[in-house]
Amino acid sequence: MASSSRFRNQIQPYEIPFRPGLELKAAWTWGAAGALGLMGGLALGMPLMPLLTTSSIAGFFAWNRYKIGHRYQQKLDALHQSAGHLWFISTDEAETHYRIAREKDAIWFGRGFRWTKHTAERMYYLLGPGAELVEPLETKQTTESGEFIGKVWIHALETERDILLPLDALKGQTLILGTTRAGKTRLYDLLISQAVERGESVIIIDPKGDKELAANAKKACERMGTPERFAYFHPAHPEDSCAIDVLGSWNRATGLASRIAALISAGGDSNSDPFISFGWRVMNNFIHGLLILGQKPTLKSLRTLVETNPTEFTLAVLKAYIQQNDPKPEILHSYLTAKNGKVAEDVPGQLAAYKKFYREVLSKTAASPELEGLLSDEEHDKEHFSKMIVSLTPLLAMLTSRPLDTLLSPDPTTFHGRILTAQRIIDQNLVTYIGLDTLSDSAVGQAIGSIIAADLASTAGDVYNYQIPKPINIFIDEGAEVLNQPIIQLLNKGGGALFRVFLATQTLSDIAARLNGSQQRANQVIGNTNNTIVLRIIDQNTQETQTRKFGKFPMSRMGTALGSGISPHPMDMNNGSYSESMNLVDTDLFPSSEFASLPALQYLAHFSGGTIIKGRIPIVRD
């Protein structure tokens, strides 16, 4: 008896998550039997109390069977009633959701539910033993052309509710993965509209130039009654475009040189290439030279210096610096006068005289490392110098050719449109759409994106160091096309300046390809994002990476065994056996292959803190 008791205690119950409500037939049978028995007994004049007792017992069993069967049938019906069509809501409905989220210091991510191990077990059942329950549904959920639109029943595994994520979680940065037409643009519309509603700065970097994304951002500003907050930048539409002075915001001149160096490095490490380091040094010296002359550094002025002989520029800077330090005229004149009594008038002669005066006299009391760097460049071997800065010339040419010469290096005296800087966007809480037009010219578009990203990264550092941070939302579509070291820095450290970066891409391989094929650098980008939102993805490597991120869980797996045999004893001709077992098997919380089956506008998200959400987002219509 004790052994039997221990055995019973080891038995673990296992409930099939989905099946038809077979108990409903028994419920109707019990109900009919109770009703017919009552009516028949009354017709035959039988005593009332026994009839009521038997009918009540039948009714109890009918109700008990109905409850169990109805529960199973409801779950099955929910799968078959799962929305295979898109979810549309009005602008008024959306703004109600936005307001509720804002009041709770949160952001609304549509509707959904927490993805738990119990949810995963239900999914695996329908992918395995219960596949016949959803196969008709999958055949039904296709377009008129026969295109499969996804396994819509996945979202019916649990009861959905509004998904609200605390705004603090967004400081951990967000990676959005999704193939073409999976819903990245609609997700951005949802997030951008809420940022506008909160009155925060928004910067949208769009390589493709999605007109609808720009239009929706503009409408969001208009709905708030602040249409002036919207700014539009697009090199293909210079007549409608504002100008962005990418070198207009800075606290340290070295930061301007770093923005140019970011163009050379593209996605690589800005310290790993001697050409990058040399290019940074040259830009830094030119920029400090312009500042000594009292001139504002621009991409156009830097291009001019790179493409021309810097001797005259060096002489002008040297003269200006010496005059700023009030040299004694008689001493300076003595250096400028040759042995024959003539004052040097040609450029080489004057340069030699001024350099000698600086090094022998002025450097003793007013040495300038910046000026000495410029002098060092001027004295550098010309052929070697030209080879080391060869990569600067095409990049600066790209960014200063028409119409970018006025859009990225605007002159306030001649440009009559709106001129922005990164700092101005932040100070005025603007909503700035930046189209890169990479479809028409990918090289120039990527260069624009890189210099703007470098400007933002530099400004984030200034905000962190010198200002009281306030939220700035940066949305980068097709992020692999503009990914560079400054963006990686924003992902890594921008949260301290309250920069919330949303980086969308189709595959993780795109990120590695942009970073010179470095998977290690790609992993750094992925590791710097605490939130990951996965829409439909079809790249196998991306699927497997996300499955590993979501982790595993111990899944209960039932096993059955049947056996039969023939006994040698004449009186016992055959025997049989049956056994059931249940084991715990480590299984992926979400199978990698099913990311390709997510319908459009549905996602699986891993948010900061480890919460996993299955959700869907609406299409907002006026």
From TrEMBL:
- Leader sequence residues: none
Domain TraD/TraG TraM recognition site: residue ranges:
471-599
InterPro entries in the cross-refs? Conjugative_coupling_TraG/TraD, P-loop_NTPase, T4SS_component, TraG-D_C
Could you list this entry's UniProt keywords, alphabetically sorted: Membrane, Transmembrane, Transmembrane helix
SUPFAM superfamilies per the UniProt record, alphabetical: P-loop containing nucleoside triphosphate hydrolases
One Pfam family this sequence matches:
TraG-D_C
List where the protein spans the membrane. Answer: 30-63
What protein does this entry describe? Answer: TraD/TraG TraM recognition site domain-containing protein
Q: Which organism is it from?
A: Acidithiobacillus caldus
